[in-house]
Amino acid sequence: MMLVTWDHILVAVSLIVAFMAAFTALDTAGRVAVSRGWLANLWLTCGGTAMGIGIWAMHFIGMLAMNFPMSMRYDARLTVLSLLLAVVSAILAFTQVVGGSHLTLRRLIAGTVILGSGVVGMHFTGMAALLFSPAISWDPTLVAFSVLIAFSASGTALWLAFHLRQDQRGSLPRRLLAALTMGIAISGMHYVGMAAARFDAAGLMMHHGVSDEGLAVWVTLITLSILGLTLLASMLQLANQELRQLAMHDNLTSLPNRALLEQRLDKAIQRATLNNGAFALMFMDLDGFKAVNDTWGHHVGDRLLIEVAGKLSAPLSEGATLARLGGDEFVLLLPDGDAASAAALAQRLVALIDAPVELDRYRLRVSLSVGIALFPLHGESKQALMLNADSAMYHTKKNGRNGWSLFEPAMRVMTQHQLALANDLWQALERQEMRLFYQPKFLSSGNTLLGFEVLLRWQHPTRGLLTPDQFLSRAEKTGQIVALGNWVINEACAQLKAWQREGHTQWAISVNLSALQFHQRDLVETVRQTLARHQLSAASLTLEISETLAKRDPTFSQQLIGELHRLGVKVSIDNFGIGYANLLQLKHFDASELKIDRSFINKLRADSEDATVVSAMLTLARSLNLRMVAEGVETEEQQRLLTGLGFEVLQGYLLGKPTPAERISEFITRPMQRWRWQRT
Which of 532, 529, 527, 502 lies closest to 517 in space, CA to CA? Predict the structure, then answer.
């Protein structure tokens, strides 16, 4: 038997080519998974071709790595045939396995047989192309072993190509490891097959055919160029896909964004128009999300949005499109949806979102308001459909939230009213349309006027005087509430300073803080600068925060209230009695007073258990140096009861309505018993 040695450099090159072929095949399989139509077929062809050429080149370079005592020559026709066998079998196997949406055992076996047969045929056809006389003899055991390896490697390669095609994120390490495994398996088959060959020691190389001189370099360069170009095209396709993902999808939730939604909405309208069909469009908005975002921080709000997106996506059919427009607004496009199916799904989604969400130490709860518009009943253009679905959603919010509404023409008027009001709100401060009203606070024991709670009003140029419930929710949603809140603090301090110059040095003011304002980073510095600007004592200003806001993040609340306390500003816990906090929890805050919520006052009776509870609360509050304030005092009976229980400060319509600054003198010139104003 002829002694054959090996060129180790070419052996290493053949292994590199096998690895490159495997990785290119796996990468192009990933392109197949995200492509459709002719583009998917193109990637199937490219992937199969790259794999076939790579396997053939690895085999051919491995053959060139054999060092014979004479120069090697090859039959050109058989060499080309071996290449075609590798490429065609790889393309057919790729189409059989990677081209489908599901991988069944039958399809995997069929693909394995096709590719394995092609690899075996390629190998022994390529060996037959070697012009050696006498003919090569074979070791049957090693031949059988090489065939077994070929089919095993083919099956493994196709299985990996299918299963690694789906995962685009974090798939590179897995693809590299899979390509290494496939490359070793392919190389193993070749070199076992080469070991099965027996060359007669007296054999000679024929003089016709193609010489091996320089073939290794050319085959390597051409093959690596083909594989490199295929891989480059795949990478460019990946980059294009990622750019499309960024352009058409929401970065946080990965849901379609407005641009992609409008594209699909246009197609839905075209399809429904041609087929005389119908579909439903839903506008959805989270109730209470702003409070969560402002109270717990944007990182918690973002995680909540991801959870909500998952809940909304779970019950949807394959053809539905759920998009996020931004913030807490979602839109759902339901192809072939009618009023009944849309309403049933809306009710299900409302129930899903109503369940609390557990995020680490946070237990968050929001609700969902949904508006439904139907094509073509409620609009034949995407603009009309989106506007009307939005109108129906706002109707849901106006009627208690946490539900759904089907569009009716009357809803559009309300929406246009709200949008116009929102636009006007942006210019309200600039146009000096905001007004402050002041509601007096009295010592319950006599005629002593302690000061005022500051209340915001909007003197709209065409709609008249608007109360906060008509515009503050919109200001909170757009973030304008911070600018409005800071303006209120500044104007109230300026007015208090004017009163103090008139001799009312004992008066103080209290200002309500919204959740967003309470969490602004520079709140303490803003208050400090405002007090310095108007040369006011910090003790003359009280900032009111709701009980629910204080308890949502006790650590943050304790820290911020402590900073305000050190500044000298007083803090009042408002709406006490409607949340879940208790006095023992509040003792950790540096608060100065508690305001019992008006709903608690309204149901208070002298002989009720509530009166006993309030009396106990008053006793405990005094021990904690907390002043108790009762708001919402509307009747003389309530005044007598509250005074008898021991409240120190009273506030309400019985004692004085919210009043402009220019009419505050009326509270000074008339005795207390004469300036009780009855409800109008």
Answer: 527
